[in-house]
Amino acid sequence: MADGFSASAGEIVVIGGGCYGTFYARQLERARARGALTYERVLLVDRDPECQASRELASSRDRQLVTSDWSAFLDEWLARPRGADNADAIVPSPLMPHLMYEWIVRRAGHRWPGRTVRSRPLDTEAGTPYDMPAPDGTRYLSHADWLCPTHCVEPAICPATRAPRTWEMADTVAALVPQLARMRTTAGPVIFNCRHRAYGVGMFDVVEVLGGDALVAGAGAGGAAVDVVIATVSSCHGAASLLALGPLAAV
Hints:
The protein is 27% helix and 26% strand. By secondary structure, it is of the alpha/beta class.
């Protein structure tokens, strides 16, 4: 378990019921059986009712396969009332699109109907060994210029270099904000930081997601045009996007 994280969780949502989601569900069950982690239940979300998880995982009263589009599920699940002590969490898949950014964009559109809410290409380089802009404007970043071990938990000693890990992707993304602010008003970053919790499974808490949405609400509350840097990261890798809010006066 990573330092700073609780050994307990509420509902844990695993994105995808393919090879990664099936692995994560098994590891979570093992972690709980051995006392490394407690949780209420696991929800595996996949639009295919015949996905790998449905075929390979035994039935369990503490695990449910939810057949749904990821975005539709997150819209409903994240809208549920939650207290300040809520411990729900999300396990992302390394192959998923930038789902949490897309959720933030939808939330902004509902919050400010008629206001321009769009994605702006993040065209400032982060200086990482891997830095690749995608057609939708998202930048995919990595501090590794080597092939990382499968299911690496990104420990303090990098298993590829066998030397101390001196980088943190959240810091790398944060450094983009003042660079972008030289060109236009920029807020953030909103960071969804996936950290190893137990038995090779990384996740971020729902309170972190809701806090990011609140940061965007605050950034746009003044009515002026503003860009917000939003990223989903682990220690070594990340996806960073730029949300552009137009001025409220234009409505």
